[in-house]
Structure to design on (57 residues):
């Protein structure tokens, strides 16, 4: 049986090439603002900013 938690899955999307590179989770109760992280993008071949997107394909 799965645990009932207050965490949601979200995608991290590259701001330059718009590719979906990472999947992560965050607490939806404590953090209301969107996540922005510097991560490595395989398509850009550089460290770029990745923003939160909730559209799971």
């Amino acid at each position: 049986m799965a645990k009932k938690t207050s965490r949601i899955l979200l995608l991290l999307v590259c701001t330059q090439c718009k590719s979906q590179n990472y999947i992560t989770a965050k607490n939806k109760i404590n953090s209301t603002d969107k996540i922005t992280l510097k991560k490595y993008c395989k398509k850009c071949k550089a460290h770029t900013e990745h923003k939160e997107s909730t559209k799971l394909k």
